[in-house]
Amino acid sequence: MPTETFTSHALTLTVSEEPATVLVIWRGRSTAREPAEFLIPILTKALDRASELKRPLTLDFRAIEYFNSSTITPVVRLIEEAKRRGGSMVINYDKKLRWQELSFSALQVFHTGDQRIRILGV
What we know:
- The chain is of the alpha/beta class.
- 35% of the residues lie in helices and 32% in strands.
- It has one domain (4-121): Transcription Regulator spoIIAA, CATH 3.30.750.
- It contains 3 helices and 7 strands.
């Protein structure tokens, strides 16, 4: 899987295979009313590839400027799917940005004791 870039309106996702992870970098702004239509196929494919390679899937939100409340739903669905499959997932966000800290601190409930699902403010 080479690096692939997907864009919908002001949101861009870049998916790449790294030596230790399958990485999805989020950039721009996610303001769509139904972002799942764009996000779910990309994120599911990335999770599938991470599972094939036996690597964690990393979602990196540090470069995103904004996302609306509708955007978090597909992310939560992906976390639940990774847990169901026994996969590993890391979510990185910028804890210095107040809006990101507020949004992602709520996802801490998905953090697993075995470190398979990690929500990290960096």
